[in-house]
Amino acid sequence: MAGEKKLFIETLGCAMNVRDSEHMIAELNEKEDYVLTDKASEADLILINTCSVRERPVHKLFSELGSFNKHKKEGAKIGVCGCTASHLGKDIIKRAPYVNFVLGARNVSKITDVLHRDKAVEVDIDYDESQFAFKDFRSSLYKAYINISIGCDKQCTFCIVPKTRGDEISILPELIVNEVRKVVSQGAKEVFLLGQNVNNYGRRFSGDEPKIDFTELLRRVSAVEGLERIRFTSPHPLHMDDAFIEEFAANPKICKSMHMPLQSGSTALLKSMKRGYSKEWFLNRVAKLREMVPDVSISTDIIVAFPGESDEDFEHTLDVARSVKFEQMFSFKYSPRPETEAEKFTNVVDPELASHRLHYLQAMQDEILDSITAQYLGRTFEVFFEELRSDGFVAGRSDNNIMIKVKGSEELLGTIAKVKITKVARLSQTGEIVA
Ligand code: SAH
Ligand code: F3S
Predict the structure, then answer these.
(1) Mutational test site, ligand 1, from 84, 196, 332, 335, max ligand atoms within 8 Å of CB
(2) Does residue 2 register a pLDDT over 80?
(3) Are the folds of 138-255 and 259-374 the same?
(4) pLDDT over 60 at 175, yes or no
(5) Which residues line ligand 1 (CB under 6 A)?
(6) CATH of domain 259-374
(7) What is the pLDDT of residues 305-358, one digit of tens each?
(8) Of the residues 51, 259, 303, which should be mutated to test ligand 1's pocket, given the most ligand atoms within 8 Å of the CB?
(9) What fold is seen in the domain 380-433?
(10) Which residue's CA lies nearest to atom 7 of ligand 2?
């Protein structure tokens, strides 16, 4: 349409950023008539929704901003949003003066306001967005991301998130359940509940509402008729009490895949990371989970070469990885982050040794994964199809989060079918629909 304004948005980082981007797209669409484009050079507004968990994306940000500025349409605005916006604030405009505004991860509801205030910097991490009624935009018709809390109350010594997203505030259960009802009435079958620490849910609301815990929230969400699948991320291993694991096991709507961010297998390092659990507790929770849900798939995050990590500490991490056999592992070299406790730790691990450890762990995990996927051959899983591929395949996830593709076309999208695996690979399995 002539005269229409175009928005280009690039989203980096976690699922929460994906949802924050959806919120901003919706606000800009309803209140300012912006429509999405996938070409930055055509856009009237270019947004980058940033991540600051590790250092590399921050360097990348400035080179990307430079390139957007060079190729942008005349008069187009550029905004930097998300966690790097929170942590660098006005320095972004100092370093890249053509940036029009900076909007922190906890301020995305102000998008249509900063848009009209050149050089605005809104990065208040105490800002309470927990009851803000965002306009509606969903990137998928079939599954919906739903925030259940904002911020994080933990103080893991390596992590910048509490500094960029502030203290944790839970969103009221009524608001969450209403949102679930709404998306289901619009056709979604799956909801993905989001928080930095979902199973810490319900300890603090913005008012003095009665406390309810995550297990109770799961029960209330699963009571919504028409909803078929519930996923959530990320839970914290410390808060995986028996009641939570039992609900996870017994509730048929909860998908049987659990993210258990280990970080390190060494109890001594876990202590210096302030994770609040030991190697034994983690293994005990895994054992309980595998016993109650034999088909569960467990994913994890691991940080290699945290300051002070000895060969023996690293061996503990390998030991946990070998014994748990994670179905998915996200492993990273430790990256010192500003304003975190660990940034001041002086017992840094030699960078070469750090790379060596990371490669060793990843090679070991690849072997584990090959032996896990080999066992999928000939088995049947229920797959929820959500992605049309250009090569004549339609892909989706099983209840326990295995990515599976079958030959087919768009009629399959949004449906759930039984699929028998006919060919296995490390990251994506191929199968055939069975009656
Ligand atoms: N509670 C959030 C954590 C966000 S950070 C969640 O579980 O999604 C996501 C992952 O990034 C963490 O689990 C951790 O493994 C990794 N990470 C965080 N800070 C890091 C750092 N300073 N260096 C390397 N990896 C880090
Ligand atoms: Fe970061 Fe630990 Fe919270 S990893 S997001 S401080 S649970």
Answers:
(1) 332
(2) no
(3) yes
(4) yes
(5) 14, 53-54, 158-159, 161, 196-197, 234, 261, 263, 301, 303, 332, 334-335, 337
(6) 3.30.750.200
(7) 999 999 999 999 999 999 999 999 999 999 999 999 999 999 999 999 999 999
(8) 303
(9) OB fold (Dihydrolipoamide Acetyltransferase, E2P) (2.40.50)
(10) 154
CATH for the 5-122 domain, from 1.10.10.10, 2.120.10.80, 3.40.630.10, 3.40.50.12160: 3.40.50.12160
Domains of the chain, residue spans: 5-122, 138-255, 259-374, 380-433
| Neighbouring C-alpha atoms within 13 Å toward the C-beta of 31 | 16
Global pTM reads 0.95
Ligand 1: residue whose CA is nearest its atom 10: 301
With a CB cutoff of 8 Å and minimum separation 6, the contacts of 181 are 224
User: Which stretches of 107-172 are DSSP H helices?
Assistant: 111-114, 161-165
| Residue owning tokens 């620490």 | 197
138-255 is classed CATH 3.30.2130.10: no
The pLDDT of 40-53, averaged and rounded, is: 96
CB 359 within 8 A of CB 328: no
Residue in the structure block whose two tokens are 């694991």:
245
How far are the Cα atoms of 77, 79, 95 from residue 114, in angstroms, in the given order? 11, 9, 19
Convert the pLDDT of each residue in 236-270 to its tens digit. Answer: 999 999 999 999 999 999 999 999 999 999 999 99
